[in-house]
Design a protein that fits this description.
By secondary structure, the protein is mainly beta. The chain is built from three helices and 28 strands. The chain has one domain: Neuraminidase. Helices cover about 5% and strands about 45% of the residues. The termini are far apart.
Length: about 350
């Protein structure tokens, strides 16, 4: 597999004052062609480097476009909208291509997203987010619940695991992942089944779960740090991150199938046809005392995005971060957009950017 060193890196001039990081990367020779050929780009969050990445291609090279946010986490993405969960806010960006002509890379950019709404949640330790029939659903890890968003409240609690007795900001079981089906939450992942403040972090019994939200039933347990359940083709795929694994659970026959093992902490999944894009993270230094199995098995773990062919479970390409980026949280495909741009809320351009419907007289 051929490798290409150093993707291009583009930053905005008006970045928030955040620590500087080395964002260097290498990627397989076919990675630019895959993105360009599929007419997609990738949005990727890294809370550790406090960055939202846009991985975009001109067909020959990869450009890594950096947007700095405080602790970016879950993503909800379409071709026309990007919603991002951060340290204490949820930010919404809508497509507004009228501003492309004023951008430095206007000849390459085929979609521009500009800020349109901000909702303050407080530090709820937001993880996965997704839109359903009732608007935006979020994983509120601090309060161990799923919630929706209402402008009159920080959040509206809607569901909690059956073993959680009350809602307090104690991150009792590390509820983190969420998958929607038919417009409503269907599956979630937790690190533990505890009902005590951060017991999962102290005990590290590694008794993670995949839970059916509708039935309140634990359908898979004894998992090691599971994340990122996603419904695809009627089945739910999820990461058993502490082992570097990706599983598929078929609800029809309750069969759990191991699909792939990778050399990293698997977290963040999205699909495009038969291809699965998976985020990998390095094992954190904070986990050295209670090292997950993946750290004991490999001397080195990787951070980046791997592309897996679901038809034969083969790895067909990757981009790997070689510098300071060690943690990937979420991965989302931007469909029908090859070279996106996003204007950050603190960018000076925002004061002159407007998006509004026609006046009906």
């Amino acid at each position: 597999m051929s490798l290409t060193k150093e993707s291009e890196i583009s930053k905005t001039e008006d970045e928030e004052k955040l620590p500087e990081f080395d964002f260097s990367s290498e990627y397989t020779e076919n990675f630019p062609g895959i993105l360009k050929g599929l007419k997609i780009s990738l949005a990727v969050t890294s809370y550790q480097s406090q960055t939202l990445f846009f991985i975009r291609s001109d067909g020959k090279t990869i450009n890594t476009n950096l947007k700095r946010f405080r602790r970016p986490m879950g993503l909800a993405v379409t071709r026309d909208q990007i919603t991002l969960g951060t340290f204490k806010e949820i930010l919404k960006f809508n497509r507004n291509d009228t501003v492309i002509q004023d951008l430095e890379d206007s000849a390459k950019v085929d979609a521009c997203f500009t800020p349109t709404a901000t909702h303050t949640t407080g530090m709820i330790n937001i993880h996965d987010i997704a839109y359903g029939d009732e608007g935006l659903w979020v994983v509120n890890s601090a309060f161990s619940c799923l919630a929706t968003i209402d402008s009159d409240y920080s959040f509206v609690p809607r569901w909690k695991p059956p073993f959680i007795t009350d809602l307090k900001p104690e991150d009792r079981c590390h509820l983190n992942g969420m998958a929607l089906k038919n417009g409503r939450p269907k599956y979630v992942t937790t690190f533990d089944q505890s009902n005590r403040p951060q017991a999962w972090k102290k005990d590290r019994k590694l008794n993670g779960t995949l839970i059916d939200v509708e039935s309140n039933q634990i359908i898979v347990d004894q998992l090691v740090m599971p994340h990122s359940p996603r419904v695809h083709g009627g089945d739910v795929y999820f990461c058993e991150s502490g082992k570097g694994l990706i599983h598929r659970f078929s609800s029809g026959n309750s069969k759990l199938t191991l699909l792939k093992k990778l050399q990293g902490f698997t977290r963040g999944i999205d699909f495009w046809g038969p291809l699965m894009f998976v985020g990998l993270s390095k094992v954190r230094d904070s986990e050295t005392k209670n090292r997950p199995p993946i750290a004991k098995e490999y001397d080195e773990t990787f951070a980046g995005i791997w592309i897996i062919n679901l038809e034969d479970q083969s790895t067909i390409g990757h981009i790997r971060f070689e510098g300071d980026v060690t943690q990937i949280y979420d991965v989302a495909i931007i469909p029908e957009v090859v070279y996106p741009e996003l204007i950050e809320p603190n960018d000076q351009k925002v004061k002159d950017i407007f998006k509004f419907p026609s006046l009906n007289t």
